Amino acid sequence: MTDSTNTGGDVRLSGISKTYGSFTAVHPLDLTIPQGSFFALLGASGCGKTTTLRMIAGLEDPTTGTVHLGDKDVTDLPPYKRPVNTVFQSYALFPHLDIFENIAFGLRRRGIKSVKKQVGDMLDLVQLGDKAGHKPHQLSGGQQQRVAVARALINHPQVLLLDEPLGALDLKLRRQMQLELKRIQTEVGITFVHVTHDQEEAMTMADTVAVMNGGRVEQLGAPADLYENPRTTFVANFLGTSNLIEAEVVETGTDVTVTAGGGKLRLPADRCGADTRPGGKLLVGIRPEKITLAHADDAGAIADGRNRVTGRIVDTSFIGVSTQYVVDSPAGTALQVYEQNIERDSRLAPGAEVVLHWNPAHTFGLDAAQSMLAGTVSDAGVETVEDAA
Amino acid sequence: MRLLRKNLVVIAGLLTLAYMILPNVVVMVFSFNDPAGRFNYAWREFSTDAWRDPCGVADLCGSLALSLQIAAWATLGATALGTMIAFALVRYRFRARGAINSLIFLPMAMPEVVMAASLLTLFLNMGVELGFWTVLIAHIMFCLSFVVTAVKARVMSMDPRLEEAARDLYAGPVQTFLRVTLPIAAPGIAAGALLAFALSFDDFIITNFNAGSTVTFPMFVWGSAQRGTPVQINVIGTAMFVIAVLVVVAGQVAAGRRKRTDVS
Amino acid sequence: MTITDIPRAPEAPEAPPAAVRKSPARKRLVPYWLLLPGILWLLVFFALPMVYQASTSVQTGTLEQGFRVTWHFATYWDAFAEYWPQFVRSLVYAGTATALCLLLGYPLAYLIAFKAGRWRNLLLVLVIAPFFTSFLIRTLAWKTILADGGAVVGALDALHVLDVTNWLGWTQGDRVLATPMAVVCGLTYNFLPFMILPLYTSLERIDGRLHEAAKDLYASPATTFRKVTFPLSMPGVVSGTLLTFIPASGDYVNAELLGSTDTKMVGNVIQSQFLRVLDYPTAAALSFILMAIVLIMVTVYIRRAGTEDLV
């Protein structure tokens, strides 16, 4: 179904920003979304991701900056003149029109008379061939969602914008629709720009993810790259979970050596997003699933060259595929460790003295000048208070 | 020109609003008139005589008091009866529902003069003396449907789980009604009561048929349109307008302030 | 506060003896008790009068000797034959006023619902505010506004509007007062809020995202209005037109205060037959004919507009 009209090219945002009175929703932003990619804007509510999307759609006028589709400046075009379509949050299906007319709406507005074949094809694509005569309220949430996608896609837009399209669905349906949307995107080859607050959804579906926070893009990259090499504490905490340990640099080479809580840790210099002069401060990060947990009695069996932190288990929770441990140590409190449930060591119970060890190559370093809590759950509360003020 | 086209709706809307407000302005301005003859239709000169002596015309303030009295009782009666009907309609299943719904809808879908005339035939045939009571009966009758509609809308939008939650938290049926149902339905009941008061106070057609020699305020105005309109009518009209607007604005400001303190 | 400070949930009380327990039959009667007083009121003072009026309409007699039911249906025909111009006038005036209300009211309702922002409440108050002054006083104010030789009439004359309305028969010479135009103008004015409020309610209920979705799907502002906004506001249009047309068709206040003998509506006839001429059978018959016409028109209209959930 790759279409001949689909020759527009990239979406380019240059210096685009949006302010409401004294509140800045989006700080000046440069972003290029390559043609045919599945691009996700990820962030907590109020981070400016939806505003950015709406500026691409033309539903919001940017305060500064321009929006280009390919070579064409569309900044001043009203939404109904842009070759861009949106799948709205909670769908915005027209309640007075049936499914067929909802899907045909865009075609009819552009003066296309024979819509029957196209609408039929589109209904088949989203597997709703038998629902053409129904009204939106007669459909389930998942079906409404597919109608919303069909209604936008039938216009062969250069870019399809999706504003939290799966937010109203339950978990199982959401997973199914994620795969479905991914399949449709591959099939039609249109650029998808997807706004979501669900990091798993962004990582499953998108080729490129832009993590937004406070009206700025914190980091942009492929999901795996973002996860493995976060450059800010926000990204480290918002995408999955990170243990962050305050440390002081001792020595710098290809590896950086730091001290934390009396112990020495090493990490690769190229994974340090911060100044690594000896004496400088650093936040050392390690993902919970990269850590191996050993009982203190077995400390001798740990291979040389691995980073070690000693501590005491304060809590364990059984998740099924893994067990999550919370460990207090001199280097930091409430360190998270995920262990696969392959061979469970019955001594690893709350109160047990343990050694956490991991491959230094999995360690990353962040600038110590930022809040360690950015992007965590407790941080979210703080953010909403600021928004209200 | 482009600005004009873009704001066409705004301009048209404001013109309509001006059309609606203009008579009130005229009423207000002419309350300061000193008319030449018996009719207060043409401007002569500025005077505050009428404002200094609002009851200076025979029967004017008496008719006003009577109208307020009838409106108060009609509001009480219609609100009580209407609220009960609204609760029954929303909260219970029973037979003859359709018939009852039609009986409530019909008074609103009937030209007033038809209701007025038919009620008069009833009173004439029964030999009832026309006066205060026949007017009150008529007012409760036509206000009832409006109260039912207002309260019903509110009760229908109420989440039935709130009452279930109250019962779950050890509130008996009476407690549930007094502490949960009634407070939530209160805005609807208040809206219905206000509407009833306004309708009753301002009613002319039905009153005209069923009042006999009793003179309510609208009847007084009607009569004066034939005999001569005293400036005091404009004074009363202006005063009511100003008081009501002040009450509404004060209520809005209070509500706005409450909302703001709730947030912080 | 620790968990032990929280008072314990009360123990489940012993099941009451069967005799004390409310019988389900009594519980089933609750709605009927709630309905009884109000419905009785409507039956006695709304439905029963209709029966009396029906009976009066087929009576003959004189005021002195009293009226008796003689099944004299000819009264209907005689009344209609004599007063059909007033019926036609009522329907034409009420219809014109309703159309004008829709035309004038829609932009204001739209403005309040979508464009007013923080002025919304103020505008709503201004729409309702005229109600606070008795409508008779406000209708009399139109006598001043439309007075002969006044500013409004002068402006209409200067703009040659009067030439057109004279040609249409709406006005006479350089007068507006005591012409059909004055009556329609008064009717429109009196019932505008009844049009605006339902319109506003149904417009305000429209999800703003539907407008955005329409724009996103290549509908220009005009098309968005035609294809999305207006269809979705139909419930408001229907109830607004009914709330305007029904009372306007039976009104006699505007025709009396602003019109002349040539602008009498059927309401004027009913009123004078009942209260001045005291020809009760004719008045009752006229009232019944008016009711029948309005109910039939309303039923047909609601059917065609396809909106049943008005109440």
TrEMBL record, chain A:
<dbReference type="Pfam" id="PF00005">
    <property type="entry name" value="ABC_tran"/>
</dbReference>
<protein>
    <recommendedName>
        <fullName>Spermidine/putrescine import ATP-binding protein PotA</fullName>
        <ecNumber>7.6.2.11</ecNumber>
    </recommendedName>
</protein>
<keyword id="KW-0067">ATP-binding</keyword>
<feature type="domain" description="ABC transporter">
    <location>
        <begin position="11"/>
        <end position="239"/>
    </location>
</feature>
<keyword id="KW-1278">Translocase</keyword>
<dbReference type="InterPro" id="IPR005893">
    <property type="entry name" value="PotA-like"/>
</dbReference>
<comment type="subunit">
    <text>The complex is composed of two ATP-binding proteins (PotA), two transmembrane proteins (PotB and PotC) and a solute-binding protein (PotD).</text>
</comment>
<dbReference type="InterPro" id="IPR008995">
    <property type="entry name" value="Mo/tungstate-bd_C_term_dom"/>
</dbReference>
<keyword id="KW-0547">Nucleotide-binding</keyword>
<keyword id="KW-1003">Cell membrane</keyword>
<keyword id="KW-0472">Membrane</keyword>
<dbReference type="InterPro" id="IPR013611">
    <property type="entry name" value="Transp-assoc_OB_typ2"/>
</dbReference>
<dbReference type="InterPro" id="IPR003593">
    <property type="entry name" value="AAA+_ATPase"/>
</dbReference>
<keyword id="KW-0813">Transport</keyword>
<comment type="function">
    <text>Part of the ABC transporter complex PotABCD involved in spermidine/putrescine import. Responsible for energy coupling to the transport system.</text>
</comment>
<dbReference type="GO" id="GO:0005524">
    <property type="term" value="F:ATP binding"/>
</dbReference>
<comment type="similarity">
    <text>Belongs to the ABC transporter superfamily. Spermidine/putrescine importer (TC 3.A.1.11.1) family.</text>
</comment>
<dbReference type="InterPro" id="IPR017871">
    <property type="entry name" value="ABC_transporter-like_CS"/>
</dbReference>
<dbReference type="InterPro" id="IPR050093">
    <property type="entry name" value="ABC_SmlMolc_Importer"/>
</dbReference>
<dbReference type="InterPro" id="IPR003439">
    <property type="entry name" value="ABC_transporter-like_ATP-bd"/>
</dbReference>
<dbReference type="InterPro" id="IPR027417">
    <property type="entry name" value="P-loop_NTPase"/>
</dbReference>
<dbReference type="Pfam" id="PF08402">
    <property type="entry name" value="TOBE_2"/>
</dbReference>
Automatic annotation (TrEMBL), chain C:
<keyword id="KW-0812">Transmembrane</keyword>
<feature type="transmembrane region" description="Helical">
    <location>
        <begin position="91"/>
        <end position="114"/>
    </location>
</feature>
<dbReference type="InterPro" id="IPR035906">
    <property type="entry name" value="MetI-like_sf"/>
</dbReference>
<keyword id="KW-1003">Cell membrane</keyword>
<feature type="transmembrane region" description="Helical">
    <location>
        <begin position="283"/>
        <end position="302"/>
    </location>
</feature>
<dbReference type="Pfam" id="PF00528">
    <property type="entry name" value="BPD_transp_1"/>
</dbReference>
<feature type="transmembrane region" description="Helical">
    <location>
        <begin position="30"/>
        <end position="52"/>
    </location>
</feature>
<feature type="transmembrane region" description="Helical">
    <location>
        <begin position="177"/>
        <end position="200"/>
    </location>
</feature>
<feature type="domain" description="ABC transmembrane type-1">
    <location>
        <begin position="87"/>
        <end position="301"/>
    </location>
</feature>
<protein>
    <submittedName>
        <fullName>ABC transporter permease</fullName>
    </submittedName>
</protein>
<dbReference type="InterPro" id="IPR000515">
    <property type="entry name" value="MetI-like"/>
</dbReference>
<keyword id="KW-1133">Transmembrane helix</keyword>
<keyword id="KW-0813">Transport</keyword>
<comment type="similarity">
    <text>Belongs to the binding-protein-dependent transport system permease family. CysTW subfamily.</text>
</comment>
<keyword id="KW-0472">Membrane</keyword>
<feature type="transmembrane region" description="Helical">
    <location>
        <begin position="121"/>
        <end position="141"/>
    </location>
</feature>
